[in-house]
Amino acid sequence: MITHSVANKGQNPVLHMVKNTRTCRCGSAAGNIFQHLPRRPYHVIILLACLLTTTLPVFASDADAAGDPRVLQSQALVKEFAAQLIAQLRQAMATDGPVTAIKVCNIAAPQIAATLSARSNWRVGRTSLLTRNPGNNPDNWERDVLQQFEQRKQNGEAMATLEYHAQTEQGFRYMKAIPTVELCLGCHGSTLSEPVKAALAELYPQDKATGFKLNDIRGAFTIMQTN
After folding, report:
1. Closest C-alpha to 26, from 192, 176, 178, 201
2. According to the model, what pLDDT value does residue 188 have?
3. Which residues does 8 contact at the CB level (< 8 Å), separation at least 6?
4. Contact 197/3 with Cβ under 8 angstroms?
5. Cα 91 to Cα 84: distance, rounded to the nearest angstrom
6. End-to-end CA distance of the chain
7. CA 220 – CA 139 distance, rounded (Å)
8. Cα–Cα distance for residue pair 49/32, rounded to 1 Å
9. How far is it, in rounded angstroms, from Cα 159 to Cα 180?
10. pLDDT tens digit sequence for 43-55
11. For residue 24, which of 57, 71, 60, 59 has the smallest C-alpha distance?
């Protein structure tokens, strides 16, 4: 049995027992990036938007985290992860185009996670019920939280408040849901362009992260501080 806290105080928590461990919201940052990109075919802009917006977290409020600095620290790590990845994708897209941007994402995302993990002494990453990279597959605890997010969303909770943190046997853990926005459907939806299919087949042969619909939960940022 663990103690736990949910971002939305009115929501009944689903998790009671846990055993084990392991990023789309469009904002002004992504919009500003597009203003400086060269004109390219529509499917290229869709692809870049997908790559960028999957890293843009939205937080409803810090009010619920005021009593626990570990939550604020986790949120800061999530925001930094997003900012670093966006910067590298922007440079790759502006200089070499979408295929290079996908390759940069493939390499940069785990590198950023590793750097932030080493600096903070926390484990920083992303996960999903339908992963693109099998290295991001959820453990039992993460799967339970992702399923909890799905239930909370079905109960009408806003996507921005879908956060969860708990003190577990492994340490303090935090997750933040990643929503699917319209532009994400270009590489995570049911209808993908041929260039996107080819790039994903090359880099992610075990990809499960397609077939998403608007406002689905794409996945979550996940952070753990070991005891």
Report:
1. 178
2. 78
3. 64, 152, 157, 161
4. no
5. 11
6. 16
7. 13
8. 12
9. 10
10. 444 444 444 444 4
11. 57
CB burial readout 207-224, b (16+ within 10 A) else e: bebbebeeebbbbbbbbb
- Span 155-166, mean pLDDT? 94
| CA atoms within a 13 Å half-sphere pointing along the CA-CB vector of 82 | 26
Residue 70 has pLDDT above 90, yes or no: yes
DSSP string of the chain, one letter each residue: --EEEESSTTSPP--------------HHHHHHHHTSPP--HHHHHHHHHHHHTT------SGGGTT-HHHHHHHHHHHHHHHHHHHHHHHHHHHH-HHHHHHHHHHHHHHHHHHHHHHHTSEEEEE-SS-SSGGG---HHHHHHHHHHHHHHHTT--GGG-EEEEE-SSEEEEEEEEEPPGGGHHHHSS---HHHHHHHHHH-TT-------TT-EEEEEEEEEE-
In sign, the C-alpha dihedral spanning 77, 6, 8, 53 is positive
Distance CA 123, CA 117 (A): 5
Global pTM reads: 0.71
Handedness of CA 151, 155, 160, 161 (dihedral sign): negative
